[in-house]
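User: Teach me something about this protein's shape.
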Amino acid sequence: MALTSIDIIKAESELKGKLKGSQNNIMTILAVRLGPVPNPVKEKVLRCLDFNLLETMLVKSLEAKTMEEFNSHLG
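Assistant: First, the predicted structure itself:
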């Protein structure tokens, strides 16, 4: 069964939603645990489109003791 244009658009939309949700979760955890998130950190998190890297960021957002420590894992 071939994918239709609608199927592709729905899949892309779902993917974008999952990415945005992961990015927002990381930002929320950082803000609650470590305080205001500096713009360079926000930009790195919000530009990330790699689910594996986002998962690593999520774990680091829970483990880091400071924003600097979190940021040092971003590369």
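Now, about its shape. The first helix runs from residue 5 to 34. DSSP finds four helices and no strands in the chain. If you'd like, I can walk through any region in more detail.
User: That's plenty for now, thanks!
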